[in-house]
Fold this protein.
Amino acid sequence: MAADSPQQAPPDRGQLRLTYAQIAERLRITGENARVLVRRRGWFRIIPNRSGQPTVVVVPEEELAGEQIRRTGTISEGETRGETTPDKGHSELEAALGLLDRTMSRLAEATTRAENADKRADIAGHQAAEAARRADEARRRAEAAEARALEAGQRADTTEREAKEAAVRFADASARAAAEIGTLRDTVGELRDTVARVETRAVHAERRAIKAEAESAVKDARAREIEAEAIALRRVADQARAEADEARQAAEARVVSLKAEASAKIAQAQETQRTTEAHIANLEADTAAKDARIAQAEADLDVARRDAETAQQAAAEFRLAEEARKARGRLRRAWDGWRGR
């Protein structure tokens, strides 16, 4: 195997030799995330000489344990998120979505560049491994022929150094790309959180608006009901006034009728008086008595007329008071119903 670092052999104390798959299994992440993590942390890698064999990573036990603790949720999930007023929800949502689209585009480009860098690094690693293999063969041939071995060894050493330098450069490029990808992913995560908060607040604001509209509709319906009850009460009052007018007209008609009856009785009395005057000479005593009775009758007639007028007026006032009491009762029930809705 060929190492991707200038060191000849990494120390084994407190270190583990794991493949990308084993690292992913221990940290419960994907193989691609394991590759990014190895490059970001700068862990020593041992690239195999033969294609198809897995790359071995020398992982410090303490760093691996710390990474396991961090990825099991013991660290903070992020700073406390601030509040956003509902009236800014839509503008923040649009801005966040635009920024998210641009960030996702940049993330896709960075991912593509990182993948290309990984491929180039793997190719360079294989090339370095192949160069190291050729160097070993050259050294073996040099031992058989001293004159050619020195020159071949120098060429092999030069090739190996160049390959290692190329591998280091590719490793640095990969680490930078991985760091950029990590930063972009963190930014995308924060943007997604912001979008989720904005959407939640927009939903809450919309629900409050719907509730306010429903309450307004209920109040409008109640107002229409009260208005209808008021119209009905006005109609009842108009009907009561009409009935009072009819009662007054009936009383006036009754008074006219009583006056007509009184007039008829007066006329009859006058006729009787004329008849009595014709016989006055013979019936003076009767005439005096009859005059007294006529006076009494007229007094009784006046009393009866006043009693009839008083009774008609009292009846009209009673009906008006009764209708007003009923109207006040209906208004009171409507008011109590409106207040107790």
